[in-house]
Amino acid sequence: MTAMLQKKVLFVALVGMFGAAHAMEPPTQPNPPATTSNKISNNLSNTYSNTNVSLTGTAYLEGIAVYEVFDPKADAMASAQVNDVQKNLGNKLNVTDPTSSSVSGSVSNIQGNAGVNNASGFFNQQANNVAIGSASGKNSGAVASTSFEQMNDGNSYTFAEPMRGTSNDMSASISNSLNSIQGNAGVNNAAGAGNQQKNDVALASASSAVLATASAGGMQVNQGTSVTTFFPLNGTASITGSVNGISGNVGLNNAAGLSNQQVNSLSVAATH
Q1: Which of 1, 2, 60, 77 is the most buried (most CB within 10 A)?
Q2: Domain limits of the chain?
Q3: 170, 242 Cβ separation under 8 angstroms
């Protein structure tokens, strides 16, 4: 069986006819119209054969093109883009041992941006992205964008009998951390297998400008997963005494188990 995935994302921002506000000031000649456009295209195609969760051929073609077209009269343009892809395809896993991860008494009293990923288990996908575009000046503009893809496909998990005296428990904990932060914080905490977590922020700020645009988005895919358990599966993800006293933006994902999908996206655009 052949599965094909094609994705095309196109963002277009177009602003024109700036300078009309000066038309009422004779005899001064108004400035010619200024046109600023920003285009982001993301073309992605995957082709592979998936039969009974056994991957029998893989071919990937990925391309991201980002470009801007400006009017010659534009004074300045700031553009920031973040694009990422995470994939786990056709893996076979036999779990017999416990796993654990922890963050304690860390990442506090920070000014600016903080990103934390904490995971216990297998094939978990986590990421934090921030794109900031800032510009000032007549006929200028600012663009910020983030995009992502997280994919788990055709993975096989077997949770077998643990070694004597142990278990196949998976635990992830964050304690007394990520407190008193001024700015942005992205936090991902997962215990299990095939979990997907994402925090994205896009900020665009332009002063005396014609354009400010921000976009944040993406795709999460979990499919074709096979799970076999011979003993109870125990996953625990905990956050205690953390993420307090924060001024700004917080994106927090906390998941235990299999194939959970979580995302926080924030986009802000402002002209002033």
Answers
A1: 77
A2: 75-271
A3: no
